[in-house]
Design brief:
Blueprint (H helix, E strand, L loop, with lengths): L10 H21 L22 H4 L3 H10 L4 H19 L2 E3 L2 H16 L11 E5 L26 H8 L3 E6 L11 E2 L3 E2 L15 H8 L5 E6 L5 H7 L2 E4 L27 E6 L2 H11 L26 E4 L10 H16 L3 E4 L7 H17 L4 H15 L13 H22 L4 E5 L13 E3 L2 E3 L4 E3 L2 E3 L1 H6 L3 H5 L4 E8 L5 E7 L5 H15 L9
Parallel strand pairs: 2-3, 2-6, 9-10, 9-11
Antiparallel strand pairs: 1-3, 4-5, 6-8, 7-8, 7-16, 11-17, 12-13, 14-15, 16-17
Length: about 550
């Protein structure tokens, strides 16, 4: 069985595009395609409501919460400072696309009044948080970056939003994403393009690109994203911040993609995860402790012990690492930064070994990812949508290898794919019983220049041109998701940490992978590792 990537071996990420096409076709059948209007990014009001508050906007969410509780500053000061910061920098970045300034400031005043009366709402009392544009937020415009839903105002809160509000957080705004969160760049016909804060000519990644750019530049201390193939980890790496893709079903997905299906119906049950991005691992730990666990709506979410076991010392830490998944090349700079990161841990006395999981065939892993996504979506489509999908898939297969997986789902295929996935999960889980953490690249290279699609099908971007990675030419999806999608296939938690920088100053991240359901332990280990090997810094000019 081959376990190496070759130029024509795109089958693993093939369904990254096919699943996106499926979603668009199903939506086309149900709601129809409307012409897009001009992009409508958030517009700066004539009069800012706060003076500059740069020292405040770069504090962590944990420190902001502590400062509000202690009276060092008020929630109104914090929110005002962030709004003013957004006024100044968001026009260039287009990271936040919806802000209800009056409601947000009113809520901040209420937070201050409550605290003065001795009422503490929770661990994030009065702290601003931003939300990706595919989570329901009551009385806010949530579009899924999809033109037919461009005027949608949702009438309920997703579980993840409700829990943040119950913890005292104030929803500062909505962050940009690609159409239906289905790209690793961030642009759409409603709001336009989001830029990377380290270089405006480059992508911030996707699909949580708006959130990552907002966190990196001090426009939001904490943001919520989603990850089906790297959509938290890739933007975190490209923008130089921290992010966690939790174990699948660690966090309820109730309220995601409002307006597309009945809110009580799940479109995907495996491999997708919801989680935070922040400027510190401490904030990831705080946020995950708030949003995780069963909610009575999402039956796939179990109750999990959130108390990590005793943190090991550096000399007790067992670290496996790799810079090669199935011979998909990473850039020389990425390899160099990862090796320097590992060397710092070796200097601390950690047990280190360069090794990949045994019997973990990466071609099979990528193929299984694609098949699982197809099988969770195909069967939900009406016959008319399936007919259109297969017809267009046949037309474009010769044009793009990414559509090779657009085939009718069968019961036998579903059982076979689920069985293969369970075997892959077991292989990685057995491997991680011998190692405390597995460290590897997030992507093949740092953030690249904005790319335009070769074609658009029902609003979905088709990329035929390869992406250069040093002297190599890689398929678009393999260049972006070859190192992230495997851990969606297996559902394991993975944390992105800023590890270093390229010669031209772009952030390079690494990801730390831990055992399923041991997310808090993984974050404890990540915090230890970050303390001696991490390389977080703020981008200049903000």
């Amino acid at each position: 069985m081959k376990n190496k990537f070759h130029r024509n071996d795109f089958s693993g990420i093939i369904s990254l595009k096919s699943i996106n096409l499926l979603l668009f076709l199903s939506l086309f059948v149900f709601v129809g395609c409307q012409s897009s209007s001009d992009p409508l990014p958030y517009q700066t009001p004539e009069n800012s409501t706060a003076a500059s508050g740069r020292p405040i906007v770069f504090l962590s969410a944990s420190d902001l919460a502590a400062g509000i509780r202690s009276g060092t500053f008020s929630s109104h000061e914090v929110i005002s400072a962030h709004i003013n910061h957004i006024h100044k920098y968001n026009p260039d970045l287009n990271a936040l696309v919806v802000i209800d300034e009056k409601t947000t400031l009113d809520r901040a005043r209420q937070a201050d009044e409550a605290l003065a009366a001795g009422e503490l709402w929770g661990p994030l009392h009065g702290v601003p948080v931003s939300i990706k544009d595919h989570f329901a937020v009551k009385n806010m415009r949530i579009t899924n970056a999809f033109t037919p839903l461009s005027d949608q105002v949702t009438d309920f809160d997703a579980t993840i939003v409700k829990r943040l509000k119950n913890a005292g957080a104030i929803i500062l705004g909505i962050t940009n994403m690609p159409v239906m969160a289905m790209d690793v760049q961030t642009f759409n016909p409603i709001y336009g393009r989001t830029n990377n804060p380290w270089d405006l000519t480059r992508t911030p990644g996707g699909s949580t690109g708006g959130g990552a750019a907002a966190v990196a530049t001090g426009m939001s201390p904490l943001t919520i994203g989603s990850d089906l193939a790297g959509s938290i980890r890739i933007p975190a790496a490209f923008c130089g911040v921290y992010g966690i893709k939790p174990t699948e079903n660690f966090v309820s997905s109730y309220g995601i993609f409002p307006g597309l299906t009945d809110k009580n119906r799940r479109t995907i049950r495996a491999m997708a995860s919801l989680g935070p991005l922040a400027r510190s691992i401490k904030d990831l730990k705080l946020c995950l402790s708030i949003i995780a666990g069963p909610d009575g709506y999402d039956a796939m979410v179990p109750a999990v012990n959130m108390t990590p076991k005793t943190k090991p010392g550096y000399k007790e830490l067992r670290i496996a690492w790799s810079d090669n998944f199935g011979d998909v090349p990473v850039s020389n700079e990425t390899r160099k930064v990862l090796k320097q990161f590992i060397d710092k841990l070796s200097d601390e006395g950690c047990t280190i070994k360069k090794i990949n999981p045994a019997d973990f065939n990466f071609i099979e892993v990528w193929e299984t990812w694609g098949k699982m996504v197809d099988l969770q979506i195909n069967v939900t489509l009406p016959s008319s949508a399936r007919f259109i999908m297969y017809t267009l898939g046949g037309i474009h297969r010769s044009k793009s290898p990414l559509l090779q997986m657009v085939y009718p789902a069968t019961y036998d295929k579903f059982i076979e794919t689920c069985s293969k996935r369970e075997i892959l999960i077991a292989h990685l889980e057995q491997f991680l019983m011998e190692w405390d953490v597995f460290i590897c690249p997030v992507t093949t290279q740092p953030a690249y220049k904005h790319l335009e699609p070769n074609d658009v099908i029902f609003g979905y971007n088709i990329y035929d041109d390869p992406i250069p990675v040093d002297e190599h030419q890689l398929n678009y999806w393999m260049a972006n998701a070859a190192y992230t999608a495997p851990f969606n296939t297996t559902g394991h938690p993975a944390v992105t940490i800023p590890a270093g920088y390229s010669q031209d100053g772009m952030p390079i991240g690494v990801q730390l992978v831990g055992r399923r359901w041991h997310d808090m332990e993984l974050l404890e280990i990540a915090e230890m590792i970050d303390a001696v090997a991490g390389a977080y810094r703020e981008p200049a000019g903000y």
